[in-house]
Design a protein that fits this description.
about 130 residues; alpha+beta; Beta Polymerase, domain 2; seven-stranded mixed sheet; two-stranded antiparallel sheet; 6 helices; globular
Amino acid sequence: MNVFERCEELNLPPSEFIVEGSGVLDALGIRESRDLDVVVQQSTFEKLQRRGLVQKTKDDDPYLASGEIEVWLSFAGKGFDELMDETVQIRGYNFSSLDLIKKWKQQRRLEKDKRDLILIERYLRDNH
């Protein structure tokens, strides 16, 4: 399943969420993602919770989970409204900019992020 099919699974208007993380890489054709991470406003978070998404916590941050989808209130230290100022639209959905994803991965420095940074650099070199 690709990132756009996962976006449809959320059953939300595209204006209510922003795709983060590897979903951005998937949308740009850099690499496939195995999951979908999105950021929403508090009201949408509560709506999804009422629909049955399970609340969990990671590093003291609450999120909702359902299968391959995780719903967050922030990403890279930014909330929904601040992130919305930096989004790009791809096929009608809001995605964080590749620049933000690159900076986030540089800060985390996990092995998977290091591999993604190589792919991002290759993409930027070949497409700009």
